[in-house]
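Hi there. Long-time user, first ticket. I'm pasting a complex I've been working with (about 1302 residues overall). I'd like to know whether the download I got is complete or cut off, because the file seemed smaller than I expected. Thanks.
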Amino acid sequence: MSSGVIHVINPNSTTAVTAGVDASLGALRFSGGPAIVCHTLEQGPAGIQSEADIAAVTALLIARARSFGDEAIAIVIACYSDPGLAVLREQSSCAVFGIGEAAVLRALAAGQRFGVIAIQPGSISRHLRSYGAMGVMDRFAGERALGLDVVELNDQSRTWARLLEVGERLRDEDGAEVLILGCAGLGSYRLALAQALGVPVIDPCIAAVTMALGEAR
Amino acid sequence: MSSGVIHVINPNSTTAVTAGVDASLGALRFSGGPAIVCHTLEQGPAGIQSEADIAAVTALLIARARSFGDEAIAIVIACYSDPGLAVLREQSSCAVFGIGEAAVLRALAAGQRFGVIAIQPGSISRHLRSYGAMGVMDRFAGERALGLDVVELNDQSRTWARLLEVGERLRDEDGAEVLILGCAGLGSYRLALAQALGVPVIDPCIAAVTMALGEAR
Amino acid sequence: MSSGVIHVINPNSTTAVTAGVDASLGALRFSGGPAIVCHTLEQGPAGIQSEADIAAVTALLIARARSFGDEAIAIVIACYSDPGLAVLREQSSCAVFGIGEAAVLRALAAGQRFGVIAIQPGSISRHLRSYGAMGVMDRFAGERALGLDVVELNDQSRTWARLLEVGERLRDEDGAEVLILGCAGLGSYRLALAQALGVPVIDPCIAAVTMALGEAR
Amino acid sequence: MSSGVIHVINPNSTTAVTAGVDASLGALRFSGGPAIVCHTLEQGPAGIQSEADIAAVTALLIARARSFGDEAIAIVIACYSDPGLAVLREQSSCAVFGIGEAAVLRALAAGQRFGVIAIQPGSISRHLRSYGAMGVMDRFAGERALGLDVVELNDQSRTWARLLEVGERLRDEDGAEVLILGCAGLGSYRLALAQALGVPVIDPCIAAVTMALGEAR
Amino acid sequence: MSSGVIHVINPNSTTAVTAGVDASLGALRFSGGPAIVCHTLEQGPAGIQSEADIAAVTALLIARARSFGDEAIAIVIACYSDPGLAVLREQSSCAVFGIGEAAVLRALAAGQRFGVIAIQPGSISRHLRSYGAMGVMDRFAGERALGLDVVELNDQSRTWARLLEVGERLRDEDGAEVLILGCAGLGSYRLALAQALGVPVIDPCIAAVTMALGEAR
Amino acid sequence: MSSGVIHVINPNSTTAVTAGVDASLGALRFSGGPAIVCHTLEQGPAGIQSEADIAAVTALLIARARSFGDEAIAIVIACYSDPGLAVLREQSSCAVFGIGEAAVLRALAAGQRFGVIAIQPGSISRHLRSYGAMGVMDRFAGERALGLDVVELNDQSRTWARLLEVGERLRDEDGAEVLILGCAGLGSYRLALAQALGVPVIDPCIAAVTMALGEAR
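Hi, the file is complete. Here it is re-exported in full:
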């Protein structure tokens, strides 16, 4: 008998991302604990890289959220830009978490100033609006982008090299004491990066699903 | 020969609101100045009262904005919640203004602390997220709602009485030195309210269209 | 086989408080999930009501934390003033959470402005220093005290009446959209208060232990 | 028939600056729109470079503002340090705008973090006090000075080289998404700089006079 | 042999105010310590109640400051609005303190949130700009005015009654833990008010002259 | 006849530090002024470098403070981390000042943005929590560490070289207009550093004892 279901929605259509998210959540699956079910938004874009993508997936997210049954205790939106967060909160009878918001909140309990590793520079401005709306700019150290496209992200050694480089600058130049992976799909690098840089590294999916565990019945 | 067109979109389907907005902009129409054209989003909801309404009109706004020709110098979204502001800015080749953002910016040049008169209490939280994202919470005195529904808003004497009552509390209890009408459709009360309360009152549509005039070619 | 132990330390010597905390955490205990073990600091004061109390329990907390074995994945300090949080974080090899900090972080995902129900007015100033250090004052609606002493808190109908009264003022006068029980020992009122007031109510112990679940191996 | 007069006062005595300001405002002059009249404060210093200069021009500004007739709808103080802004607002029956304040407000609608190009490093501290009083430090990316004196500013190729250099640092190192020309006399470089750097560039005089257009009768 | 002179300038022409300030500084006069000399700005207005008054006294303050000899170690401007503070700092070779700024800084070491008792409501907005420029709005509880004119202030029992009333509201409704007398001339009520209200009360003249003692040679 | 005693407690056991503090306070000792008595906490650690050190000295500080007689007008805690500040304030009948808090407050009257020179990088996070609790992050330019251990600090030429280097970076890269020596034992370098860098440099012990002079009877 489960104590409810946590639905994790990857709002893009790339199943490899969903699989990666699913894999990263293993430690949070307990027998007798909430089931954690990961979904792919098949009609979504291959990746969420613009405000237009965010606008496009919002309606899809609303529809998908409506399909969840009574056993749902929480919905997690697995994109760092938290698309549809406000509207899903309004429309859902269970708790709703965005991985961007949850990651920042978790980071605030791990270090005085947080730094964020984004994929593309174009998303930093959007993220900053979120941090402002969250009222946490006094804790913000900086955000820097890997600047890698999807093909480049598949090159693991190149991605790792950039993660190290960007993480070091956030730690040493910007004064970050904790780093956030500003993307749903980088969780596999988390432990190695934390070890290499000597600072805590937050996987936003783990942060959000952990919060969702608190809704267990 | 005009110096360009400012397109003002009322994102709800109530043509009376569009007409009211249009009427309030008379003083900003100059011969030789930009044309100011007001649009109704016929497929939008009768009013925008929820996050679901905002999500629903965003796609409509994107489509409408795409229909504007090369003579467009600016687009103004005439709803205080600024639906679609980020995505229209990303997708448009001309400047885009939201009346909520513009009203707050104008108020910052009119008094040290601003107060906002909302229509419904349910929208205050959404507005606060915007003020946070704008980084202006140190200037925020308070926001209070009229608590009137659409039918009640048609009763002008009742609306006026509530405007006075709410405005006085914002001024006297919350310390507001300037008031913002937190809605596109209250412009007709602006001058009387400013006179009755002795503080500047900002009509958000005028604030945004004024900013748009600066884009004149 | 457990996935580690979460140690929850009540830093006062009142075993009834520990029992209440223990009872409130039932929904977070999963077979196969982390064990949640509650401790009483027998040498601590009967309650923590002053900076002197905080100073006094800090050394006790350090000693107790050192006694935990390798299976510890997290330590939770079950006092809303978060005594010893910084030093335990420095001295421990596992994660450390304070229920005050965790409650505020959880509240930030539940409403735009949070209100806090303290037991005694004298602790509000101390809490405000924490919110300032957390950098979240832009999200703070207000904090008000029940003003009840230990004997009065044992009178459940009186406590309930004050919770309702103070909660309503935080919601209606201060604009709080989410309330925090600013004390480890009020968890049994949480659901009833949330239902009575129509806003989410955060139990700080649940908030912190939920965060700790994310440390599961 | 005009809809009122906007009086723009250059508070220094350098008529070339006034002429430059006047030229930059061409696009805001509409037949039927407000007249825009630029004034030189002949008794002012050649440039405003110190707190002493600001103190000295304040009395002159008050006197000049008093000389404007009933047709004045707005007064614009054309110095980025906004000398006399508070006192002119108190003493005038029409709206008063400072180009520093207006530029920052306009920038807030153009990018999440603003950067400012000052002429001399000594004025940055003064500007920061203004941004603080405006409550917008969370949106501030940085301010850097050209470090050019009046003679050097007359060397256009040198000025252009420094504008590019300083603008790039604000954009790339400080994260500015929008730049402000922190001086009344740099407007002629605006469009070229925006094109060269790929970010919006705000001319403070245009920002203030645009705001003033909203006062049209 | 003195260790230098602290010049305290009352920027209004009311010698009774200067005398009151002088009397309040008795405890800071030590044999062998800095001499504390109080000055009246005879050409200043009877009181400083407007931005125009501030503009008017600035030139007088600059002239008076220039008259001080080499033995000056500090200049204190004894008006809570800190007229001329920036320019005197720029023009003087010794340290310059404003009693408004100094009072707020002293209050920050006496309680988590400060409240201010102003004389007239019209000055509150001006003071708020200063607190914003100081960056201390997160510590600000509120400011309320006595609403008494000069004649009424001479009625000591009426003044005392209003001080009590306003101080109680700041303490009980606004949450102030420390109160500032927002005026140079209320020092004689300080101790009685602190005793009556049970919170520290800051006399801004004492706060500023104390800071000035640190410049002793 | 003295006007009371200011007790300055060095919370570490290194008497050389106490002697240095004592020497730096010479200019604040006036015949007829408060006596300034410096104490060494003999049972304290050789230096305060961790949260554990802070926890350890707190009880010692409470005990020492209790030993002071009725003539005490103020207690100064001479460690930049302000150990025990809250509890001593609660437990003492006289005023209590921490040199960290006092230094920041003094710096706020000396420049718009303050920079801090710490000894070790590990203390920066702790200091940032304090600045946050003080609510002054908008005035914070940066903090950088010398990175010298106790032995290296005894090498005066090496210490001086690092002070210059770190101070220049704070001034030139971080925009600090005033520097704080973030340690009780660097006072002997203050004047030379201010002269070399051309910005005010605050000795935290002088800042705190100066504030304490205001408590003179």
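A couple of notes from our side: The radius of gyration of chain E is 16 Å. Residues 101-203 of chain E form a domain with the Rossmann fold fold (CATH 3.40.50.12500).
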